[in-house]
Specification:
This protein has about 300 residues and is mainly alpha-helical. It has helices spanning about 1-5, 20-25, 30-35, 40-50, 55-65, 65-70, 75-90, 95-100, 105-110, 115-130, 135-145, 150-175, 180-195, 205-215, 220-225, 235-255, 260-275, 280-290, 300-310. It has one domain (about 1-275).
Amino acid sequence: MATEAVGRRSHGLPSGLGGVLAALLADPEVAKAQQRANDPDLLRRLQKAWVRGQLRSQDVEKAQGTPQGKTLAQHGPGRAALSVFLAVALAEERQFGRVAQVLGPAEQDPRTKASAAAASAAALKARAFEELGEEASADVCINALEKDQAYRWLTPLFQNLEIVSANRGVMAVAAGDSRQFEASALRFLAIHHRSVEQGFQHPMDSTLNAFRLNLQGQHEEAFQALWSYGYDQPSPDERENWLTRAPMERERLLEEADGQALEALEEFAELVRLLAIEDPFERWDELARVISADWPEGLSEEDAVSQGRE
C-alpha cells in the first residue's frame, strides 16, 4: 500500500503521544496496582526512559517478565498500564501493526473501562491506524474519545494526526506521487476541521509552521510554535522528550526526502491553503494568482493554468 510506505520512518517532528504516560501514572488505580506489586517505581522507570528517548519495546517486555511485572499484570489497571507503555514504545519504533495487538488489556478489562488506560489505548490505536493508512479505523477511535469527552487525549491526538498527514504529503512531493499529495492535504484539512469542532482553536498553519521551524533546525522555536495555540501545556518531561527527538526526526526526514523536505513542505502548505478555500471560483482565482507569480516565459495562459492545476 502506498499509504503504508510513504512517511514510514520519520515525521520531521516528534509525534509519539508519549504524553499519555503522565495521565496514566496519575491514575489512582494504577498507583494501587504498583503498590501491590511491591515496586511502585516500575512504571516510573519506564517513563524516565521515554523522557530520555530511550524507551524500547524489549525493555517493556523485559519488565513484564520480572516477578514485579508479573504481579503488576495480575491486576487489571496494572496489566492495562503495561500494555500502554509497550504500545508507546512500539509506536516510537514505528511498529504500528503491533500497536493495536498489544492494547487488548487496556481496552477489554472491565475495570479499565473509561479509565486513563482505555483513553490512552484509543489514542494510540488512532495514531497507529492513521500511520497504516486505515483512516476509517482511526476515525472510529476518535469517535470513541469524542463520545467520552476525553480532551486530555484528543488534543495531542489531533496534533499528531496533522503531523502524520503533513509528513505523508512531504514524502509524496519528494516521490512525485500527486495522488497521495492531494489525499494527504485533504486528510490534513479534515483532521484540522474536526479539532476545531471539538473546541481546539488553532490556526490551520500552526502545525505546518512548527514543522517548518524544525526542518530549519530551530527546535526550541518549533516546540513553542506547536504548543502555543490552546493546547494543554506539556509537562517538563514531555518537553525534554520532544527536544531530544526533534533533531533526529529532522535528520531522518531530510535524508528520506533527498534534501527536498523544506521545499516539499512549502508545496504541501500551499496546497492545504488552496484546498481550504471553500468557494471553488475563489479557489480557482487564487490558483491563477499563484501561477502568475512565477509565469514561465513563452507559455500561454491556458497551458500555464493547466500545468498549475495538475
